[in-house]
Amino acid sequence: MSQIKNKKQISIIDAARELFWKYGFKRVSVEEICKNANVSKMTFYKFYPNKIELAKSVYDMLIDKGTSDFHKIIRENTSAEEKIKKILQLKLESTNNISKDFVYDFYSDTELGLKEFIEEKTKHVWKSVIADFEFAQKKGWFRKDINPSLIFILSQKLTELMNDPEIIKLYESPQSVIMALTDFFVYGITPHK
To answer: Of 17, 30, 79, 143, whose CA is between 20 and 30 Å from 85?
Structure first.
């Protein structure tokens, strides 16, 4: 995704992200986004044909930033443990204040095309993540006996678990579920700081 430079478009994306995080995608209207962004509906439609395309832009922007930040962390001259801590902090910050409605709307949607969009974007992003993981393996920062593709497959399963009602009931927020699953994925059952 190219860098967005128009201030009104940035306002629309920021307002949408804030509202989507709080209320989910389905419950937020174009009118509410325009009101929060302080733009007219005409301005909204200048940039986006509909709310779904805006949601994709919001997701793209967040994923692109997260991927870039991950890439920088992997290439820092720090220990593997420090890299893991920073990656988990990045995950924590990127999931801060996400509502259950948002997680459900985006990851469980079967009618709007968001789930398929996310799955396709994830495949693309994971190529970059796998390359970074292989780089870290060559440097000796991560175990060499793990196939990076296994990590991708397991992360897909974690996304499925994120929407499991039994797991959701165990935690107070979607962020808590995401962080618990990520933490478990990274550390297993071993204690860590």
So the answer is: 17
What's the CA angle centered on 143, arms 141 and 144, to 5 degrees? 110
> What whole-number distance in Å separates Cα of residue 132 and Cα of residue 59?
21
Is residue 87 scored above 90 in pLDDT? no
Helix axes 174-187, 100-108, angle to 10 degrees: 70
Using the structure block, give the residue that is written with the tokens 């992360």.
155
177 falls within a domain: yes
* CATH for 100: 1.10.357
pLDDT band at 3 (very low <50, low <70, confident <90, very high): low
Q: Is the pTM of this model over 0.70?
A: yes
Q: What is the Cα–Cα distance from 168 to 185, expressed in whole angstroms? A: 17
Phi, psi of 132 (to 5 degrees): -65, -40
Closest CA to 98 of 179, 158, 167, 10: 179
CA–CA gap between residue 175 and residue 192 (Å, rounded)? 19
The residue type at 150: L
Residue 190 DSSP symbol = S
Amino acid at the residue 95 = T
- What pLDDT, in 10s, does the model give residues 163-179? 778 888 888 877 788 77
Q: Where are the alpha helices (DSSP H) in 27-79?
A: 30-37, 41-47, 51-75
Q: What is the mean pLDDT of residues 76-102?
A: 78
- What total of structural domains would you count in the chain? 1
